[in-house]
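Forum: Protein Structure Q&A
Topic: Joint prediction for protein chains with partners

I've read a bunch of threads here and the consensus seems to be that you should model interacting components together rather than docking separate models afterwards. I'd like to see that in practice. Below is the full input, 392 residues plus whatever partners are listed. Could one of the regulars post the assembled result?
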Amino acid sequence: MKLACALATLLAAAPAFADGDGYPTPPVTDPSSAPSQGTPPVETPTTATGEHTVDNPGFRPRPQRKDIVVTVVPDRDRNNLVLLAGITGAGLVLSAVGVYYNLDSKSAADEVTAKHPTSLPWTADDQAAYDRAHTSGIEAGVFYGLGGAVLVGAIVTYIVTQPKAETTVIHPHYAKAAPTVAPAQGGAVLGGAWRF
Amino acid sequence: MRAAILVLVVAACSPDIPSGSYQCGPDQACPGDQLCNGPDNTCIAPSLVQPFSCLAKEEHEPDNTPATATAFGNFDCVSLVYTVNGCLAAGDMQDWFKLTAPAGCAALEADIKISYPLAFETVGVVLADDSGAMVAPDAACKGTSGGAADEQRCIQKTITPGQSYTVEVVPAGGGDCDGACNYNRYTLQIQLTTPG
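Posted by a regular:
Agreed with the consensus. Here's the joint model:
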């Protein structure tokens, strides 16, 4: 992951080395126009003097001497993942228990809910269902509350235990090539030296 | 959409019981904060509740002795069903009725049934001779009839043609809300038939 982040950052900075000689080229001022830096060059016909001009000769990539900043967020370790999974699972289980009691409460409530006069007496079984609807409703509320609190705790834990991002700053030094020629037996050796 | 359905299923777990949906159960049992209405033993909102009272047409006082029993009409060997609505107010320990079995019948059976609301004190019935000595106690009825909010007790007893009998209605002592609802109204039915 660190490598991927570093590569991405380096690729983004790649135009800084596009000059060929390794050195950024200073912008050339065109007296006839004030081109913007972002406008691509447009070739124009050859002039009477035979010079080949470029409509936007000032277009050069801006030298990018910015530092390369690589930010890496480490993966969570196994213990952290287990902790988060445990808390989340507990929250879901508590919420599921709340759903169970809620459905039980609703079932009991439906047993005695009357849309119209029933002509039936209120029996001990009806009272038991009525009480069950009430108590299960309370239990559902309690477990919903617990489950919700634990899930919120899981979210808080997720945020709090987020691994700290590691930032690395790379100060680039542009390569400066110095060709070397050295005589050798039967010819010469052409070489180069670079400084970073 | 599914989430909305789930919310609807999970929610609403309190019984919805409009006033008047149920008849009072034993000991004036009613759902939630509803109370038993005295005049019609229906569970209604507390603000609408009226106390129990015996109606004038239900009272046959004085009828607390065999000598002052309320007389049924004349019976045939196979009679129609005679129905009397009565009421045992709080502290009224007995209501007496009397009948005379028609003479000239080969055999007679008295079918007596008493129905009363479950809401208040249970009621019993006894078949007795003209002096009040018990001939037959009540028992559970063989077939179920009447409203679900009513209780029935029955007597089926072969009686002697030409002889006078009395029927005593008494509080049976159960379901009286620990004395707070030691009253009830009842419907007494008597029919003479041929045994078999």
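The CA atoms of residues 38 and 52 of chain B lie 4 Å apart.
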